Amino acid sequence: MFGMEEPEKVIDELAAKRRQFWHAWRRRGFVAVAFLLVLVPLYGTFRPLFEFLLFAVSLAALT
After folding, report:
1. For the stretch 26-43, what's the b/e string if a residue is b when 16 or more beta carbons lie within 10 angstroms of its beta carbon?
2. Per the domain annotation, does 23 fall within a domain?
3. What pLDDT was estimated at residue 2?
4. How many domains does the chain have?
5. pTM of the predicted model as reported, rounded to 2 decimal places
6. CA 6 distance to own-chain centroid
């Protein structure tokens, strides 16, 4: 019939989209962990800078 696709092709497309989705989230997770590993040790050294940035971000969010 017109518009009907083979079930195997649909499953393969869904599997490919699922793989792309989890690959993107895995990459984002690695970036977040790397960012935290860099940011946490620097927090004590540059505490006034971080407090100012937090203040600036919160002020920008409120306006």
Report:
1. eeeeeeeeeeeeeeeeee
2. no
3. 54
4. 1
5. 0.48
6. 34
Contacting residues for 43 by C-beta, under 8 A, at least 6 apart: 50
CA dist 63 and 3 (Å) reads 51
More confident residue, 43 or 57: 57
Q: Domain containing 63: what range?
A: 32-63
How far apart (Å, rounded) are the C-alpha atoms in residues 55 and 46?
14
Record the tokens describing residue 14, joined without a space: 């869904």
Residue 21 structure tokens: 């989705």
In a domain, 20, yes or no: no
Q: Distances in Å between the alpha carbon of 24 and those of 27, 31, 32?
A: 5, 11, 12
- Categorize the per-residue pLDDT at 1 as very low, low, confident or very high, splitting at 50, 70 and 90: very low
Look at residue 52 and tell me if it is in a domain. Answer: yes
Structure-model confidence comparison of residues 18 and 5, the more confident one: 18
